[in-house]
Amino acid sequence: MKWTKADIKKYIDEKEYIDTILIPLIPFHLSNDNDLEKSAFQAEVLSVFSNEIEKELTGRVLLTPNYYYLKSTSNEGEVERINTWIEDIHTQPVAHLFFITFDADWKKNEHALNGDLLWLPAIHSGDLHSKEMHAVIRNQVEQVMDLIRSYWKDSK
After folding, report:
1. What pLDDT does residue 47 have?
2. What is the pTM of this model?
3. How many domains does the chain have?
């Protein structure tokens, strides 16, 4: 389920079945013109990727709004803010919480996050609408779905 009015209505009615939250972590900045296009492209790819995972695992996963943070700041400072989100999320019957990102810097702070970090190697460029890009995204979606399912099996 997505963060839309219709899906949230379904979530409220069926929350005992939705035990997994997916939070995309997306860096934002306007301070470095050289990286703007790459950053915007990665944000687009991560949104497509997250939506594909949600679509494949509908009925068990809630995809939250994207979590944006300034790339120029320390992720350590963001951990406290993210964990405040998590405190609110844990007022619901959630067993699994995943952060998904292309930003490898989060690996340095994943131990402080109140959830599991799914880091993916970044796709730096390409045509988001090409068959090749769809194949790459599809391959990564399948791998991440397998990983999420392994967490589900381990918690039984």
Report:
1. 92
2. 0.90
3. 1
